[in-house]
Amino acid sequence: MEKILILGLGNILFSDEGLGVHMAHYLQEKYRFEPAVDVLDGGTLAYQLMDHIALYDHVLIVDAALMSQTPGSIFAFRYEDAVKWGWHITAGAHEIEIVGVLTSLKLLGELPDVQFIAMEPYDIVSTHIGLSPVVRDRMTALEQVIIEKLGSWGIQCTPVREVSFDRSDNDLLDIAPDKTGKENSHVFGASAQSRQGS
């Protein structure tokens, strides 16, 4: 059975720059995935994720991306596109590093199928946890793009609870794998060690 990872990247301390992390936690709480899918809050980690990424057949990276488009615009592209563009679309330094990680894995012959689903942010400067109204209003659309992509990989996504993107700072920071009560997917905090093989 193919292993699939949803990897949310970003810095939640800078508003929309953390939209990928917000989405990772949202998906983990809301859905049951069949077959199992791992959901990882990668935060701003990059090279620390290298060994973990190599474990999967498909990796879906969710992040903010500066594409000079209307805030809230959604983009889907592959690792090869990010390399071709020189990854000038980054919203933060971690994206430059993650492409470096993927390139290293390619050189080692361990690169999985990697695809990005990203959104144009509105605010990546303000130092607070929480999405701008513009981006928050578009997160449901981003969710649907992700669900459709997972469906194309043969994953059934079943909602199991109502979840809102309007969470408090502590709600986001305190979410841990053992609080979800699910056995078929995991969220690993950016500051925690990966539980490989769990």
Automatic annotation (TrEMBL):
GO terms for molecular function: aspartic-type endopeptidase activity; enzyme activator activity. Keywords: Aspartyl protease, Hydrolase, Protease. Residues 175-185 have a biased composition (Basic and acidic residues). SUPFAM superfamilies: HybD-like (SSF53163). Pfam families: HycI. InterPro entries: Pept_HybD-like_dom_sf, Peptidase_A31. Gene3D superfamilies: HybD-like (3.40.50.1450). Residues 175-198 are annotated as: Disordered. One of its GO terms (biological process) is protein processing. CDD domains: H2MP_MemB-H2up. Belongs to the peptidase A31 family. This is Hydrogenase maturation protease.
